[in-house]
Amino acid sequence: MRIVVRLISALAFLLMVGVVSPAAAQSELLREAVALFDGQDYVTAQEKLAPVARHEKIGQLVTEFIQKSHYRHASVDDELSSKVLDRYIEALDNNRMYLLASDIEAFEKNRYRLDDMVRSEPLDPVFEMFEVYRTRVRQRLKFALSMLETEPDFSVDEEYIFDREELPWLETTEQLDELWRKRVKNDALGLALAEKNWEETQEVLEKRYSRFLKRMDQVKSDDVFETFMNAFAHTLDPHSSYLSPRNSEEYRIQMSLSYFGIGASLQIEDDFVMVINIIPGGPAAIDGVLQPKDRITAVAQGADGELVDVVGWRLDDVVQLIRGEADTIVRLQIMPAGELPGAEERILSLTRNQVKLEEQAAKSEVITVPRDGRDWNIGVIEVPSFYRDYRALSTGDKNYTSTTKDVKRLIGELEDQGIDGLIIDLRDNGGGHLTEATALSGLFIDNGPVVQLRNSNGRISRLDDPDPVPRVAYNGPLAVLVNRYSASASEIFAAAMQDYARGVIIGQQTFGKGTVQNLYSLDQYVRRPDDEGLGQLTLTIGKYYRVTGESTQHRGVDPDITLPSHIDATIVGESVRESALPWDTIKTTRFRPGEPLDSTINTLLASHHQRSQGDPDYQYLVEGIRDIEEVRAKKTVSLNMEKRLAEREESMNRRLERENARRAAMHLDAIATIEELEKLEVPDVHLDQAADIVTDMAVLREIEAAPTQTARIGT
Fold first, then answer.
1. Which of 190, 283, 334, 558 sits 20 to 30 Å CA-CA off 208?
2. Domains of the chain, each with CATH number or no CATH
3. Dihedral pair phi/psi, residue 524, rounded to 5°
């Protein structure tokens, strides 16, 4: 690496005395950097990747746990080995941008050997496959850097296939070169559309590609082993996983919430940092703009700090940039989920803070719905997660915080305000404590079972309403609002309300996460753990079932009344995960449901359909979803500047047209610019529709009660 330092110093001197221009120096530095990336100095800087004795011990332990404790009771055999190989290759090169067909063919010799390796044989072939991958990455990035010596011609009419996941592996280096020529051109075009000149674009991309090279050369043997073990675990189901000792510690820090950040879980996908989920109560959740599947492309410190491009970074390096002191500002450049590469990005400003329990707490509001000359008051309780303060509970504090206690209090406050119906809003609620899901269900049913659990041994247990007294906190019209991100404990509650005919489920089919996991610290299962530790294993050990005997796994909960959503159920949810455990059934447990709601739901559906056709907000939502789906269907982007500018302008104009059509229907003034549109508060169409439906329920209830009241008066 001293050669690199001497090179930079020499160029700096030549620049200072005016012998070379900045552009020429940059081009020269690129050429030299490319040459050095292929030289011996660079290679010796890499860690020698090879399995260690600790890895073999971990493999044996994980194999034992999988065969004894995983819900599938899978045999670690040739059939599983074949699936693990495919999953490992996918983990290395999911978009088929680096490896050649000949590499994949060479890997075939390991297809039925991986099961033997994790049990007893050396793991060297796993590391050899990774070295082939790393060599290909270095070749591709070397080529990408060489492409930066010449400014691309953006007037050529050609397209770049950015989604190659289902396409064949390329056969030759020349084919990969052509693919990467277009990828570099697309990267450059994206920056040009952001109004960067060629020298600025060169600088950004040179840093990006060089950083990715550096990241590859910083890979450690534990990283390779963890990637392979996760391919192994994910073959069984999406929620089983292995964490290396270093990442186990990172997990512990995150779970303790002892750091300040934005409250989002991240992972690397195709060189991008992608948002996996938003943690309730954190800055990102409170702000509400950042969403799962969004990609973070740059990070800046403070209100005026320079944006640092983070495409190609290691995940832990990006996390360190995002974390910081409490009450300080971090700015994120976001490529929204579903947008094409090179689409216009947005800047999001967040104030770092801890994820606070009180900010996760349920909140309430009242929506007033005018109907036939009367105002109907519909209460809304938003439940962002199923939480319980076990620390306070263990110390005997009777005032410990919990979802159920908070919701019960909020119901009382809403009833004091004279609500006519109630919505429990579980959108984006990824779950939490199972005890809270059963206890919350008990607020709306007299008594009885809430959920069933079958473990890996086939034993079925039943979890009942924990309150033995048959009483409810609220018995009026009830709806549960859900979307595709409603998962786990949210699905248990929604399913109970549906099965007991206690409420109407509104929204989108839920996520379908109906499995139970257990965490094993592997150090506890060996007499003398390695000094560096063995890491931890998360294993799926059970499944949840509704009181009807149907699983919530894979299928989730189907709403009684479906609302259109921008969340694409074909890419989000348990059912799209190849190794997800299947939906199945067990015996129905004894429970006492209320009167069937079928006829009521049919009436509500007819009314909703008629009303939505004339609702400007609803039509605005539907049109927006249609546009998003058109974008998602594309697998290619144009590399022609004029076409891309025209596409961007067309997209902006369509957004303006949709908004102004909505405003015209509501007799509001039109707006003229995208800047005005960005400042507008977006209507919560799903919540408004749910409030209308609950109003329908309240009206029906009043109509049904009227004859009885008249009869009493006449006697």
1. 283
2. 22-51+75-234 (no CATH), 258-351 (2.30.42.10), 357-596 (3.90.226.10), 597-683 (no CATH)
3. -75, -10
